[in-house]
Amino acid sequence: MYEHLLLQEEGGIALLSINNPKSLNALNSATLQELNDCLKSLQVRKDIRVVIVTGAGPKAFVAGADISEMVNATPAEGRAMALLADEAFSRLEKMPQVTIAAVNGYALGGGCELAMACDIRIAAESAVFGQPECGLGILPGFGGTQRLARLVGKGRAKELIFTCDRIDAQEAYRIGLANKVVAKDALLDECRAMAGRILSKGSYAISLAKASIESGMDTDLASGLGLEATNFGLSFATHDKKEGMTAFLEKRPADLTDF
Question: pTM of the entire structure?
Fold first, then answer.
């Protein structure tokens, strides 16, 4: 179905792999368009509740954007590529499903930016993160100047972007770029286990919580609290609210089905 992606589905989980292993899964315009199209189809599906994003092959999550495509690109073409990436990554960030980056190797440039657009990042011990763009005479253009600072703070983001330093998985965890570090051979199992815990909760409630967090980060506290109160109220209209609270009072497992 896709030339540059692999998509597997099982039990409410979609495993989406960037599949350009010969170029360490580098992101070109065709791959970004396929990613956007794939996410567009997944975001409206009620049977898919968690999306795990990873890279095909043993070495890389995504080693960056495709330099061979960009080297002779005009300013207009460069901007168009950035806007395409922004559309795909913003879709990943805002889709109602929970998204988990399984960072199995190099996550550099556009790869780091792709991981940051996911809700949660679980890294293999062998993972390497970095934003090397300034060493190529450009700046991060797929969200790096915006999402990195929001995740790790402005000072650390500036240091990583200005120096182009690479950091290992443990340092990424220490500064808040990775949520968890696991052995490489346990990476997908850990992602699936976390997905399973998420699937056992109220998916519609989680989607409202995700929307509240994402919107609240881009506004003032009072506006964010107002949005939270509105979404809190919306959750009271659901089957899951009644079932979850009744099950709690009756001391039994809840059967949460809304999405």
Answer: 0.96
